[in-house]
Design brief:
2 domains, 6-stranded mixed sheet, single chain, Rossmann fold, alpha/beta
């Protein structure tokens, strides 16, 4: 090859390697809720949202600024879903909510829509939208930097409806590798001032300092907002912030210094080849390391369908589930996430006869994270998907067998047990009462496992008691879902699927086809699990 051609090829490669990235989009969603249907209107949330929308659009030149006012629950969920799609791979994504916000007794934060009618703690969960949904949406979208601003700690109009009384929001644990900041108008558990002027103290200070987002790192900017609000309110209101953010991170990335242009006369072709292949070598090494960590297959089993067994004294009792085919999903209610109905072939596997109990967890893990600690035979709860993964890894190490969480299709197949019942063993509400602990019969707490009737496969509490984590990533429909019984390991994997309903669920949540999801780090006193185990043919 001629030297001139070689130099031209080198030049083209270096231009591609060193050229600055094109301007990525900047998106924002701002919601102001003031006209609550069951309470007197708030003075400033809409004006606050409008003020900050103007700053983001006019001063910071955001590409897509969505402003929504007096939003009901269905619309709020829709807006969050739309925002996730808009924020995908964006340079910056900003979410702002101004209005009423509450925490329930489990310290879960809820944004309150204007159509909420809350008379008790169940009403908070029924009408509110969990703030974790916003965190999960941005974790899935993965913009360069995410900012969630919760000016949602206004005086609680539902005092006495919850153990949280007049308190505002609790700290949200993020557990993400992304650049994420969560800012609160006031500190944990306190309420913010709506203000007597055209804007609340927090929104006015935020608007002032946001205009300097190109000159100040985000952490410094929000610290200056907090200083101004504390000074103006005589320290009555103390904004705070949390998250995973570097001290040097800016909301706008246009101050990044590009490296100097190379001296092409000194370019070495071998060096260029190395730069081009280094990433491929790293990827290959990562794949080899991952392969080395994969568990080796268990020894051949001789267990039969329907057989029960325990691999160790403290292990959960397992039931061998026969191989079979079934129709997964439902067209009966019209929920899009339960469609399309599709045929799944499930190999033989084993599933725990009951949800993991507090006694079983304590015996293996040495702790008991449960909120309801009164009985060893009650299901362990307040365990996240990540916690459940730790348990099945330890159980596998303890027994030499391959324990895991069931796939979503394995769970529904085991629930239906060869039939198409509405619930896991029957169709009527009277039948559900004999199968499940739910909001109608649980006395407001978990109950000992295996006190209700088993389904046709001999499994207890597949409905109610605690929601059960499964392995699968969340996807909003079954389009493209696996049909071989395996877990769906692509999609919104910061969210994992939960099945079966819980002690505080209505009957709809116990339907065999009903699906729910949450962050892998989410813990609550109605979340638990049951393990599965591979049965080698």
């Amino acid at each position: 090859m001629q030297p001139t051609i070689v130099r031209l090829l080198i030049l083209c490669a270096l231009v591609l390697l060193l050229a600055p990235a094109a301007h990525a989009k900047r998106v924002a969603l701002l919601i102001g809720n003031a006209a609550y249907s069951s309470e007197k209107p708030l003075a400033n949330p809409i004006r606050d949202a409008r003020l900050l929308a103007r700053v983001l659009k006019d001063d910071l030149k955001f590409d897509d600024v969505k402003l929504a006012e007096n939003v009901g629950r269905a619309r709020l969920i829709e807006l969050i879903d739309q925002f996730q799609r808009q924020a995908a791979s964006a340079e910056a994504a900003v979410f702002y909510f101004s209005g009423h916000g509450m925490q329930d007794g489990g310290k879960r934060n809820f944004l309150i829509p204007v159509d909420a009618h809350i008379s008790g703690e169940v009403g908070i969960r029924a009408y509110g939208v969990q703030a974790d949904e916003v965190v999960a949406a941005l974790a899935s979208a993965a913009p360069r930097v995410s900012v969630i601003i919760l000016d949602a700690c206004r005086d609680n109009p539902y005092a006495g409806a919850t153990r949280s009384g007049t308190k505002g929001l609790a700290r949200i644990e993020t557990h993400t590798d992304q650049e994420l900041l969560i800012a609160y108008a006031t500190r944990d558990g306190q309420v913010a001032l709506d203000g007597k002027g055209n804007n609340s103290p927090y929104a006015a200070a935020l608007a002032k300092h946001l205009r300097q987002a190109g000159q100040k790192p985000l952490l410094s900017l929000f610290d200056q907002v907090a200083d101004q609000v504390r000074a103006e309110t005589g320290n009555q209101q103390r904004p705070t912030r949390y998250g995973d953010l570097k001290a040097s991170t800016y909301l706008l990335a246009n101050l990044t210094v590009q490296p100097p242009a190379p001296d092409l006369s000194r370019v070495n072709l071998d060096d260029l080849k190395y730069q081009q292949t280094e990433q491929g070598h790293r990827q290959a090494e990562a794949e080899q390391a991952a392969a080395a960590r994969r568990p080796t297959p268990a020894a051949v089993d001789t267990k039969r369908a329907g057989q029960t067994f325990k691999d160790c004294p403290e292990c959960p009792e397992m039931v061998v589930i026969p191989a079979g085919r079934f129709e997964m999903g439902s067209n009966e209610i019209g929920y899009s996430d339960e469609q399309p109905v599709h045929t799944v072939s499930v190999p033989m596997f084993a599933l725990a006869k009951t949800e993991v109990t507090q006694g079983q967890w304590q015996a293996l893990m040495g702790t008991n994270p449960s909120y309801f600690k009164t009985c060893d035979d009650c299901p362990v709860e307040q365990v996240s998907w990540d916690d459940a993964q730790t348990y099945v890894r330890k159980l596998s190490a303890r027994t030499g067998q391959h324990y895991r969480l069931p796939s979503e299709s394995e769970w529904e197949y085991a629930c239906r047990a060869g039939d198409r019942h509405e619930y896991c063993g029957g169709d009527s509400l009277d039948r559900l009462d004999s199968l499940a602990w739910d909001t109608g019969n649980s006395n407001g707490r978990t109950q000992p496992v295996a006190r209700k009737q088993a389904n046709a496969f001999g499994l207890y509490d597949m409905n109610g008691n605690v929601w059960e984590w499964v392995e699968d990533c969340w996807n909003g429909s079954y389009s493209g879902a696996p049909t071989d019984g395996s877990a769906w390991t692509s999609g919104r994997c910061s969210l994992r699927v939960q099945r079966g309903g819980a002690w505080d669920s209505r009957p709809a949540g116990a339907r065999a086809a009903y699906r729910f999801r949450n962050l892998t780090t989410f813990q609550h006193n109605n979340r638990g699990f049951r393990p599965a185990r591979i049965i080698s043919p």
